[in-house]
Structure formats: C-alpha cells, structure tokens
Amino acid sequence: MVPAKYKILAALAIVVVEKCEPCIRAYTKMAFKAGVTMEELLEFLNVAMTEGGCPGEEWSLKAYAVYKELQQGKEVKEEVCCKVEDV
C-alpha cells in the first residue's frame, strides 16, 4: 500500500500540471499536514515541471510558496473547486 502522503503528492503534481490554483493550495496544505518534507515536495514538483514545461514551473512555484507560508505558521485558506477528500 502506498502511504497517503505520496498519494497527496501525486495529486499535487497532477493539479500543478492542470493549473488549478485552488487545488494546488488544498493539496499543498494536505501534504504539509501529512508530514511531507520540503525535499519530498520538491521532488514531486520537479516531476510536475518536467511534464508541464515552462507553465509547470510557474505553477510549481505557487505550491512552493504555499508550503513556505505553512512553514512560517501562516494560515492558508483554500477554496476547493474540485472534490478533494482525505487520501
């Protein structure tokens, strides 16, 4: 069985490529709460950048910024436009 945090990261990589900002915020917050490290996050964002090209980099940076906000203890509010359930 694949640990939940890796399923969340896979979903995050997909929504980065799909360019869904509310989902990026939601999945990044879920990843943070699941204990995903910065190194793990960056590995999956690198996959998103590889598959998403230049736009993938731009949208990956949005996820990175959200993660940094969470690390600083800031409240991150997300408006989920898609059905996001706990994985």
Can you put this structure into words, describing what you see?
This protein has three helices and no strands. It is 71% helix and 0% strand. The chain has helices spanning 4-18, 21-33, 38-71. Helix 1 runs antiparallel to helix 2, helix 1 crosses helix 3 and helix 2 (21-33) crosses helix 3. The protein has a single domain, classed as AhpD-like, CATH 1.20.1290.
Helix and strand topology:
Elements: H1 4-18, H2 21-33, H3 38-71
What string, H for helix and E for strand, traces the elements in order?
Answer: HHH
Q: Calculate Rg over CA atoms.
A: 12 Å
The CATH superfamily title: AhpD-like
- CATH fold-level assignment: AhpD-like
In total, the number of domains comes to 1
List segments where confidence is low: pLDDT < 50 over at least 5 consecutive residues.
none
Largest sheet entry: none
For this structure, the quaternary state is single chain
Number of helices: 3
CATH class category name: Mainly Alpha
Assigned CATH architecture? Up-down Bundle
Q: Could you estimate the helical fraction of the residues in percent?
A: over 70%
Residues in β-strands, percent: under 5%
Q: How would you classify the helix and strand content by structural class? A: mainly alpha
Q: What is the distance, rounded to the nearest whole angstrom, between the alpha carbons of the first and last residues?
A: 12 Å
